[in-house]
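TL;DR need structure tokens for one chain.
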Amino acid sequence: MELQQQIDAFLANQRFGVVGASADRNKYGNKVLRCYRQNDLDVVPVNPNATEVEGIPAIATLTESEPTLDAISVITPPHITETIVEEAVALGIGHIWMQPGAESESAVQSATENGINVISGGPCLLVVLGYRERP
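>> reply
TL;DR here they are.
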């Protein structure tokens, strides 16, 4: 599948998670969450150290999501991304977008081997969806 087809398939989902969502508005984990909201997409922050992000109740792990998320953006260190992919595989999450800096070769390989549409090493979601910085 070509990159644009992968992006289109990712964005065609209903419920998104931002793994590594941050309450700090200067961090990409916060900007990606706000970008989903700017595009009127259903998004859930995933952060074990937060109860809410941008007024949205946060979940600590992917397994806490009810219903299960369809697609996730990952903004975590690569060694954490590997664990996130394992969780996503177990839950049947079909789409993962590893934001620049979150990629891990073994995470990409594991996701691909398990039939997940994985976007990595490519554009940032903020660019694709046209993120706008707002107060």
